[in-house]
Amino acid sequence: MSMEFIINADGRRNGWAIETTNMKRLDVDPPCGVLDPKDAVLMAGSCDSFQFGQEDTNNDRITIEWTNIPDGAAKHFCREWF
């Protein structure tokens, strides 16, 4: 398991979401959220064990997307922002 901070260094509230290309093997927690300016969240990422060389892992990816959320929006994640 790997632990990483997601940090909002911007001056606006941001929404963020993490996507994986292999949901059976790759896991993240939390998968999405909202960060106020200068705020941070600790994210955990893990990869289930697999037989090296017997499974194609070339396309396994974890992607972090973010967007500025509308002014006045509540502090709860909304998939429609993306």
Write out key terms for the chains shown.
Immunoglobulin-like; MSP domain-containing protein; three-stranded antiparallel beta sheet; about 80 residues; 6 strands
Task: Explain this structure.
The chain is mainly β and 82 residues long. The chain has one domain (2-50, 60-73): Immunoglobulins (Immunoglobulin-like, Sandwich). The chain is built from no helices and six strands. It has strands at 2-7, 14-20, 26-29, 32-35, 40-47, 62-68. It has a three-stranded antiparallel sheet, with no helix packed on it. The protein has a three-stranded antiparallel sheet with strand order 4-2-6, with no helix packed on it. It is elongated and about 50 Å long. The mean pLDDT is 91. This is MSP domain-containing protein.
